[in-house]
């Protein structure tokens, strides 16, 4: 079994899906001939042909729209948007059509499609190349929103997303594309959607994150352990629908929760998790629920990027504040 | 223009092209030293377009640009030191260190932005032009964009409305034949882009973008027509980028032989040869030019090196109005 990066795991899952299912199609800007801006689709066109791995012109709304049409005809489109900052023209198609096709036809049509995009900051680019727009899609009925946090998870979750009968927005943390390697078995096994993954068990606090923030949570947990604080780490993985039961179970045990999101703070997915903890888990809490997030501003240029992005130190400091309550 | 002025003007055109070339070469060097970070797109090979088009505009015209805009910014008159400081992310940069290479703005020269979103600037230019028309100003809004933008919906919406309402927009399409890694013929049903534009009932022509005099002459004619109330005009400027798309581009999508063919049409080499043949340029003049440019760029780098960083306390400023100045 080979050790591979997250972007190689995405490539491996796409290749597996293309090989296993004739209905799977991959398309987007520069995905074929050029192998994708981050090389996520490298070699797929050579292996599977131009019919199934296609370059499109630069038209994001159309990319999303034709995916809906293909999906409604029973195909399995997997479209790439080059950066999540370029995804906004697709919002009309995804919100008004992809997310509603099943509902408005009362189940007669469905929309089994995947829109993949590199997501988030930490790659020294400002603005449009470092966005975290997951909350827009998580707010939308009918869409699934999935964010992997490691190579193995990316492989399993992407296969699950492609096989899922509904539209999935699959946001890949760009800063993790080549950050770590791990063993990934190309066994065609999907990882379950709509469930959280407990990555580390703990007693004193629950750290909840997704995507690149999972690594920061794990690093914070490690630092806290050295200080005698036992942190549980949960990788949310599917942001919508949200597996709140797993988070509630964990917080019932630990009594404290820090939610870590890279996106700006206001009205993010973290706010939804915090609200549900307040509604369903308040009596188990020993301290207020806290969010460690990006700020309500635009991603700055490289110099201040580290100040914007939540990191293990900010998470650990917040945990120590919560421990003061007990 | 008398002969002496004409000769001086031609030397000035060459000087401006050289200025861009040397600025870009220095930028690439600084990027490898990690002085400039993030994404960066060089203009090497396309200099005749920036120089020919922007020299033909008036000082109060507006310029809407792309993410490959260092050359546009320099020719437009933004000081090289302000552009370089911006690329360093210094507060002394023309976007106060928040724009970086892709988002160069300058109110004084009405340089309304680099723009990382392909096609994102076209509607903006139409809006600027509508404001001028409504307010009775005979100004031109010049909008630069690449061949990739022609695929975006905004291109079509913008040309249609500008033509329908007879707005003073000068559409300047820098056709370098590649939308990042996708060749024009793989993305466009009609690769003669001026023909596509002409279908919106506006003046449209194709120009050799490697010939600075041809570009300048065509732009002067077109700008005059636009300024005179004749509605929008479209120039397809055929050019080629010698450098990679960005600093992370293995150029798998084009043959080295093709690049070499175009390099034989280097706009600077061709024009230099032309001026020498006409007896307008000699070695001493060229050496002086190069020395002046080198000094200007060295000063720009020194200015950027000496610049200051935005303090971390300012991370979330300028998201909303901070109220009237005290």
TrEMBL record, chain A:
Organism: Plasticicumulans lactativorans
All residue ranges annotated as the Transketolase-like pyrimidine-binding domain in the record: 4-179
Keyword DNA damage: no
Gene3D superfamilies on file: 3.40.50.920, 3.40.50.970
Listed cofactors: thiamine diphosphate
Protein name: 2-oxoisovalerate dehydrogenase subunit beta
Record bears the keyword Protease: no
GO MF terms held by the record: oxidoreductase activity
InterPro entries according to UniProt: THDP-binding, Transketo_C/PFOR_II, Transketolase-like_Pyr-bd, Transketolase_C
Keyword line: Oxidoreductase, Pyruvate, Thiamine pyrophosphate
Automatic annotation (TrEMBL), chain B:
Any Pfam family: E1_dh
GO BP of this protein: pyruvate decarboxylation to acetyl-CoA
Enzyme Commission identifier(s): 1.2.4.1
UniProt keyword annotations, A-Z: Oxidoreductase, Pyruvate, Thiamine pyrophosphate
GO molecular function term, any single one: pyruvate dehydrogenase (acetyl-transferring) activity
Superkingdom assignment: Bacteria
Catalytic activity: N(6)-[(R)-lipoyl]-L-lysyl-[protein] + pyruvate + H(+) = N(6)-[(R)-S(8)-acetyldihydrolipoyl]-L-lysyl-[protein] + CO2
Cofactor(s) essential for the protein: thiamine diphosphate
Domain Dehydrogenase E1 component: 16-306
Function recorded in the entry: The pyruvate dehydrogenase complex catalyzes the overall conversion of pyruvate to acetyl-CoA and CO(2).
Assembly and binders: Heterodimer of an alpha and a beta chain.
Identification of the protein by name: Pyruvate dehydrogenase E1 component subunit alpha
Organism: Plasticicumulans lactativorans
């Amino acid at each position: 079994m080979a050790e591979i990066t997250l972007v190689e795991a995405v490539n491996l899952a796409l290749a597996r899906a293309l090989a296993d299912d004739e209905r799977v199609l991959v398309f987007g800007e520069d995905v074929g001939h050029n192998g994708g801006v981050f090389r996520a689709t490298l070699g797929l066109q050579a292996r599977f042909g131009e019919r199934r791995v296609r370059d499109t012109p630069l038209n994001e709304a159309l990319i999303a729209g034709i995916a809906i049409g293909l999906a409604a005809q029973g195909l399995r489109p997997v479209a790439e948007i080059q950066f999540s900052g370029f995804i906004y023209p697709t919002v009309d198609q995804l919100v008004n059509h992809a997310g509603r096709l099943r509902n408005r036809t009362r189940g007669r049509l469905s929309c089994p499609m995947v829109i993949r995009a590199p997501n988030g900051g930490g790659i020294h680019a400002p603005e449009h190349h470092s966005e975290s727009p997951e909350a827009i899609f998580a707010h939308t009925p009918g869409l699934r929103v999935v964010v992997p946090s490691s190579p193995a998870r990316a492989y399993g979750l992407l296969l699950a997303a492609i096989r899922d009968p509904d539209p999935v927005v699959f946001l890949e943390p760009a800063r993790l594309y080549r950050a770590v390697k791990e063993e990934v078995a190309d066994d065609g096994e999907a990882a379950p959607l709509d469930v959280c993954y407990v990555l580390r068990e703990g007693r004193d606090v629950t750290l909840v994150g997704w995507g690149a923030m999972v690594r920061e949570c794990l690093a914070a947990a490690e630092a806290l352990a050295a200080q005698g604080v036992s942190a549980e780490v949960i990788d949310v993985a599917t942001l919508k629908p949200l597996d709140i039961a797993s988070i509630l179970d964990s917080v019932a045990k630990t009594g404290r929760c820090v939610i870590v999101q890279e996106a700006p703070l206001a009205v993010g997915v973290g706010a939804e998790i915090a609200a549900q903890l307040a509604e369903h888990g308040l009596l188990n809490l020993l301290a207020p629920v806290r969010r460690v997030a990006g700020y309500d501003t635009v991603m700055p240029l490289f110099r201040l990027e580290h100040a914007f992005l939540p990191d293990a130190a900010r998470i650990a400091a917040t945990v120590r504040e919560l421990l003061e309550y007990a | 223009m008398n002969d002496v002025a004409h000769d001086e003007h031609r030397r000035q055109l060459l000087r401006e092209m050289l200025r861009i070339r040397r600025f870009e070469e220095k930028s690439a060097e600084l990027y490898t030293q990690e002085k400039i970070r993030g994404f960066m797109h060089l203009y090497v090979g396309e200099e005749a377009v920036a120089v020919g088009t922007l020299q033909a505009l008036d000082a109060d015209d507006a310029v809407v640009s792309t993410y490959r805009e260092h050359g546009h910014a320099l020719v437009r008159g933004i000081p090289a030191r302000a552009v370089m400081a911006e690329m360093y992310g210094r507060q002394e940069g023309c976007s106060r260190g928040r724009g970086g290479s892709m988002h160069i703005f300058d109110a004084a020269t009405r340089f309304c932005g680099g723009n990382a979103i392909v096609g994102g600037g076209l509607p903006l230019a139409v809006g600027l032009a509508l404001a001028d028309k409504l307010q009775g100003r005979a100004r031109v809004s010049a909008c630069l964009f690449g061949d990739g933008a022609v695929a975006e919906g905004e291109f079509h919406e913008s040309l249609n409305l500008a033509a329908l309402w007879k707005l003073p927009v000068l559409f300047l399409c820098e056709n370098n034949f590649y939308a990042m890694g996708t060749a024009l013929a793989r993305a466009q049903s009609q690769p003669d882009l001026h023909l596509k534009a002409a279908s919106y009932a506006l003046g449209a022509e194709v120009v050799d973008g490697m010939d600075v005099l041809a570009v300048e002459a065509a732009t002067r004619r077109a700008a005059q027509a636009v300024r005179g109330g004749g509605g929008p005009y479209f120039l397809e400027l055929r050019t080629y980028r010698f450098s990679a798309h960005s600093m992370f581009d293995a150029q798998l999508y084009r043959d080295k032989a093709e690049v070499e063919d175009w390099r034989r049409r280097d706009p600077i080499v061709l024009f230099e040869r032309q001026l020498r043949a006409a007896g307008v340029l000699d070695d001493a003049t060229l050496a002086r030019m190069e020395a002046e440019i080198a000094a200007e760029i060295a000063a720009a780098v020194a200015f950027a090196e000496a610049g200051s960083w935005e303090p971390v306390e300012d991370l979330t400023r300028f998201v909303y109005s901070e109220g009237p100045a005290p």
